[in-house]
Sequence to fold (467 residues):
Amino acid sequence: MHSPHPNQEKKSVNQADHTHNECKPSNKDLVQLLAEFVPKSQIIREVFIDSSALKNLPEKLLHHFGQSKVILIADENTWSAGGLAAQNELQKAGYVVEKLLFPANPQPRPTIETARTLSDELRSDNLIPVVVGTGVLNDLVKFAAFKAGKSYCCVPTAASMDGYASAGSVLSDQGFKITHNCAPPKLILIDLDILGAAPSAMSSWGYGDLAGKVPAGGDWIIADSLGLENIDKIAWPLVQGNLRLCLENPEGIRKGEPESLQSLIIGLLLTGLAMEFFGSSRPASGADHQIAHIWEMEHHQFNGQLVSHGACVSIGCLSTMALYEWLLQQPLERFAYNKSNYKTMEDKETEIQCLFREPEIARRALVETKKKHLESGQIEERIDQLKNVWPKLKSRLQNHLLPTTKLKYLLEAANAPIRAYQIGISEEHLKKTIRAARFIRSRYTILDLLDQTGLMDKALSEAQLPL
Fold:
């Protein structure tokens, strides 16, 4: 599974030999796919996945980084989950180890300011950053290490999100959540025992994040059909080609079964690689994530806790699927455009000011919206184009999308939320979020299609949203 890298350092996906012999064919295929594509990364040298993988951390660091001082970055929870054990293994091997602990409560905020402060801590010479944790910690360290000019190692403590292998760090800048281009980790070491010991809710968050790739794929199909953003022949199959395999055993995810968690984490890693190869988050993110990002920018809490990214995506996913189910029932090939529905840039600016109370978020939303705004004549051309491609586009969407009832069953079986109230979102709040979500990215999604055709109100009224 080794392939030379341009710098002559070998890159690999390592699995213990017994894993190849014992895992299900679907898992074996996923392992092989990951092994095929890790060598194509410009940064990642190795992904090592195994039970008790943490015992291999010293030798892996020595191989990829040399014998230098290590700084372990964790929070109080992830320190207990894997940080302390990592420290013990490293010290036994003769490493000098420092640690930087964030509190578990309140959780560190994924902000550019926090990441820049952390970056100052990582600038010392001959220092190897090793992050032991999940989403927020990974995003903070990824950005901080990149700005400090450091390669780093990631030790995930849960299969909770798709950003471990990605070349982007999702951080808030003055309240506006955005993906910042960074370098992924040089080494990703995944201990299946640690993943299995994580709270089951965290695995359900990862499952929700992965399920969001279904409607995100639909959004990319729309953009491709309209000639706005062509589907990439590498990134698309990397995410979508084995997505159903990764989603096929939600009960195993809920129970923490090793093979199911392995499938989930590999699916998430493949998604991260696809984002690196494509150069943006388009392969992994559409309207589902835009909806989730709104709640994350609101610092939405339920029962006194911030709602996780994956839980937000789960509801964003089912909301987008409900809109797709409604859209596919509409005879758009005979659609009669009502010019009175056209919104000028001034109309959109007014709507943005009403939807976003924070001035900086409203300003950023306006910038994103201007990038995709069309004048009246351009809208009419877009509608004519949509009508012409709709029969084929409809067929492509039907072939790609899972039935909403099926996706809802899978998410519920994985213990992910399937109704908005389960994360403290009311019907009014959900519909307001769906309206707002199209403004925060220039990326074309189903939300833009509904807005440009003037069908948004009707869709929100008639679609079976996950209330």
Remarks:
- Residues 1-11, 15-25 have pLDDT under 50 and may be disordered.
